[in-house]
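Per-record layout

source: Mixia osmundae
name: Arp2/3 complex 34 kDa subunit
length: 230
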Amino acid sequence: MILLEEHNVIIKDILTERFQRPATTDQAFVDFDGVRFHLSTPNKKTQLLLSMDWRCYNELTRYGASELIQREYGPYITETEPDYSVSLAIDLEQLPADLDERAQLIRSMSLLKRNTLAAPFERAFALQKQLDQNPEGQKELMAIHYRPDEAIYICPGQDRVTVVFSTVFKEETDRIFGKVFLQEFVDARRQPAIQGAPQVLYSNREPPLEIRGVPGLSTTEDVGYVTFGS
């Protein structure tokens, strides 16, 4: 089984090296889900600029990403590099003296994508608490189109937050393997050791009830929906 780290390994490795030995840097690279990064020293080798671009960034800002980035990276936020969504500046001459604090800074920077995507989830959990106290409160369905043909739908309710992933498998072989793999999420919960895990449902073509009213949903044979309820 491949376990994907929540942080970006390239960012972590480059920053770890540059924190020890500053050097001219200009590296562009990509992460999963079409995320683009650029780590550079546009002015001098002791001033690092980390930029990220994601197709769904504008959607994420509607759900609190700007506030979350301000909270997590406030003093490092700088003018956004052209063709990117957000930029952070690190002055290597002003790094924390404590090595543990430096390690925490490196980890925080490498979690830029993860932290940005966390914004709608934090919003959903806050809304769920409000709905728990006031069931008649306003509900909100958040849609994040993080890939060209796929999206994440986050639906806070009175007693849970439901997350729906739309998936697309264009090739017949991919559809077969994908369906088997996704069905494992459903079947795994039947094991006694993890029966307390969130409910998982998988449907092919038919959108789950929580998002059935969303306009433009595809119901073709190559589309599936994975629903997590917590």
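summary: The chain has two domains: 9-118, 125-229. The chain is about 35% helix and 25% strand.
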